[in-house]
Amino acid sequence: MTTINDVAKAAGVSTATVSRVINQSPNVMPDTIAKVEAVMQAMGYQVKGNRRLNINQGHDTLGLIVSRFNSPFYGLLTQGVEKVARKHQRKVIVASGDYDAACEEDAIQFMVSKGCRNIVIHSKAMSNDALIRHAEQLPGLIVVNRHVPEIESQCVWLDNSEGTYKATCHLIELGHRRIAYLSCEMEVDDKVDRFDGYRRALEEAGIEVNPDWIEEVPFGEPGGALAATNLLNKGLPVTAMVAFNDFYAAAAMQVFKEHGVAIPEQLSIVGFDDVLPQCYFSPKLTTIRSPIESMAMNAARLSLEGTDSSLSRVFHPLLIKRDSAVVPQTD
């Protein structure tokens, strides 16, 4: 009969480590867990008594780690993952990373401790090196809405630069030359890529980027209101604005209207994501559509079906023309 000592020797670990794996301790690296479990299966080791490990535990689940719960964006992401999980007869375990590297790490360890080896993660805080390390240990880990070149086959992402490029080009084609950009203070990959698209569009049109047109503000709706206030304090030196996301656009639009700025007659606005119902906007918001639900579905499929699939990894944003961007009255 195979003993715990036999398993430890074959796996090249201590008996204490095997015991921790059996009892689902969170203090074991995912690659070590996978190695020990594989040895246990190969050797036919049987867990007895009240020990809690079941080799198949977690195989009917799909893990999902999102950055926040309080946003329609993450609702669509979750919906996409859940649709695929249901087709594969999996239940979704959800945790929040809260835009914090330690929280994201804890969430991964929590999933692994529950036996979950298929995980879709929306990570904006962990470093590329940390994600690479986890991806190498967990082939079923798929990063959604972020591109890490070293693990590209385990990523599904949006060409964010293309999105703000399209938004800015649209405003330039309408005749705008003084175009503000509302960005976030948080250091996330989207921030760099989206500013790059805005900058490229201006430079190609021969327009110099003016630092007075750029507002970096805290994440969320209060940030959008602050950016609008700052631009008003500068005398509103622009005729148009591209916002980092629709939440910024909605909050800024409200502040501008409260101070008598007519939208879009005096100021055209383009958002990003297209996740908020248009009843929140008057006029209806011209924006860039991020296909986050489709991206999430592909991420879930790659996690469950394997990364050898020919499923699309990179997605492209669309410009959705509505009523908030028009030809400028004056420039």
TrEMBL record:
HTH lacI-type domain segment(s): 2-56
CDD domains on file: HTH_LacI (cd01392), PBP1_GalS-like (cd06270)
Pfam assignment, any one: Peripla_BP_1
Keywords annotated in UniProt: DNA-binding, Transcription, Transcription regulation
The keyword DNA-binding is assigned to this record: yes
MF-aspect GO terms: DNA-binding transcription factor activity; transcription cis-regulatory region binding
Keyword Hydrolase (UniProt): no
Superkingdom classification of source: Bacteria
Protein name: LacI family transcriptional regulator
